[in-house]
Structure to design on (465 residues):
């Protein structure tokens, strides 16, 4: 019997999903993990991120939650307000999240999360090797019947010749523009294109020194509250990060700039004048904050999505994170889902019967990962889209009904139309433990796949006999 820890694990991408996948495998004892990343370094995006309890639970197991949480804000409530008037539509108290789920709902800096994961990977440097400035070019063989016996892929170092690599498991966390997803769908003869959500986001970070002259702004920075200002087709979400030295704002509005110049671009330098115009009817407090953004530092992101994929795996190759379930950010769970994928994958591959000597068993273990993750992530992607539609309603009956529900939600326990702040959705998200679920369900799901395979083979043999 082989030792699963000797399997060669290749990870594409060092975003949240790739870093987490590499770390999860190293923590499970895998000794040969290599990460290939196009960028020359981690080049962190200057933006905040919500760190929900289901994410904190995984990070804590890996020993990196303490550092990340040290500078995070422990969010105790969320407030949804009408953008134009600042009138509060709903205020959801979250004082007991840590007691209920073991971890608080926090907000932090992306650099802190990615940096925490990367440092933890570096502490496993005997097991994890990083190859920056090196891109996946193609998947050449998938290690599956009809798709090549071995698992082979080609990478290209920025200043070098393409190299073909043989591996035992290839995990592609190469984001929404995933080369691996395109190759996988082509190999399965499925056509599925990236969808344009028609939405774009400005990401803004204001410093304490920029805000402290204004008591109303300072109160936002000092509160343990996440805010959402909503209006027709637009909203802004905001919260303090980095020990309350930074106020993070992330907007969502109709995509005008990218629609005019479509193509591979995902971020662009925006115009401050246009940003102010888009939110021109929002309340003075919002206006004052947007006005603080220095000219020339407005950054706009295109929000793209993808319909559910028919498959996330072929043979010993699997997709991870935004590569297989990109989402609108309205549930604030995209990075969390990518990190959960990595944790789930390591649990599945470490449990493969025979320690990985049997290629078909590895393929089945990756399918178990897909079974464990797909329905849940699809539901979350749908919920995020649903929330966006509810938040962006214009005048009319539907908006009246939504606002009635917001008013009702002020009474404890009622569902909130903004699903990110709704107690029943929070319960479903925050109580989830992907590692425990993988442990509980792996054997049964694996056996089910084995049985299906045996039945399919018997049928084929019968037909050919
Ligand atoms: C405005 C906004 C707000 C958000 N807020 C939150 C939030 O509060 N909470 C949350 O959990 N999520 C949030 N998200 C979602 C989250 O950012 C993403 O879902 C998450 O970062 C996806 O991680 P990933 O590793 O799958 O992909 P990515 O972060 O895109 O990483 C992919 C990596 O692969 C590399 N790569 C790409 N192609 C190749 C190649 N061919 N070869 C080698 N390397 C390659 C890229 O350089 C990159 O480093 C938000 C997203 C947006 C847009």
């Amino acid at each position: 019997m082989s030792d699963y820890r000797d399997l060669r694990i290749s990870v594409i991408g060092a975003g949240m999903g790739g870093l987490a996948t590499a770390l999860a495998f190293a923590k499970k004892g895998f000794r040969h993990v290599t990460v290939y990343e196009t960028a020359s370094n981690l080049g962190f995006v200057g933006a905040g991120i919500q760190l929900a309890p289901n994410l904190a639970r995984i990070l804590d197991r890996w020993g990196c939650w303490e550092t990340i949480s040290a500078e995070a804000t422990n969010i105790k409530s969320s407030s949804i307000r009408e953008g134009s008037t600042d009138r509060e539509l709903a205020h959801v108290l979250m004082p007991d999240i840590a007691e209920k789920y073991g971890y608080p709902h926090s907000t932090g800096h992306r650099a802190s999360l990615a940096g925490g994961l990367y440092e933890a990977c570096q502490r496993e440097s005997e097991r994890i090797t990083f190859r920056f400035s090196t891109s996946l070019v193609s998947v050449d063989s998938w290690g599956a019947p009809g798709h090549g016996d071995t698992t082979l892929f080609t990478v290209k170092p920025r200043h070098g010749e393409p190299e073909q690599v043989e591996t035992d498991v290839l995990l592609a966390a190469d984001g929404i523009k995933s080369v691996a997803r395109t190759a996988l769908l082509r190999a399965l003869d499925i056509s599925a294109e990236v969808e344009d959500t028609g939405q774009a986001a400005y990401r803004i970070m204001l410093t304490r020194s920029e805000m402290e002259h204004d008591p109303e702004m300072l109160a936002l920075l000092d509160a343990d509250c996440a805010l959402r200002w909503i209006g027709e087709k637009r909203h802004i979400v905001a919260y303090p990060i980095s020990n309350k030295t930074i106020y993070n704002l992330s907007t969502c509005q109709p995509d005008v700039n990218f629609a005019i110049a479509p193509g591979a671009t995902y971020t662009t330098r925006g115009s401050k004048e246009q940003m102010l115009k888009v939110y021109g009817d929002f309340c003075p407090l919002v206006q004052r904050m947007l006005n603080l953004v220095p000219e020339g530092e407005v950054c706009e992101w295109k929000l793209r999505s993808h319909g559910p994929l028919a498959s996330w795996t072929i043979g010993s190759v699997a997709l991870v994170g935004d590569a297989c379930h990109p989402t609108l950010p309205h549930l604030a769970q995209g990075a969390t889902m990518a990190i959960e994928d990595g944790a789930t994958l390591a649990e599945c591959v470490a449990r493969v019967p025979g320690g990985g000597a049997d290629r078909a068993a590895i393929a089945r273990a990756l399918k178990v990962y897909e079974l464990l993750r797909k329905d849940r992530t699809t539901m979350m992607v749908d919920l995020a889209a649903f929330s966006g539609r509810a938040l962006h309603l214009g005048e009319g009956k539907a908006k009246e009904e939504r606002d009635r529900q917001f008013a009702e939600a002020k009474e404890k326990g009622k569902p909130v139309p903004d699903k990110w702040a709704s107690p029943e959705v929070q319960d479903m998200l925050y109580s989830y433990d992907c590692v425990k679920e993988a442990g509980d369900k792996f054997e049964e799901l694996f056996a089910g796949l084995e049985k299906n395979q045996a039945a399919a083979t018997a049928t084929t043999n019968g037909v050919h006999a």
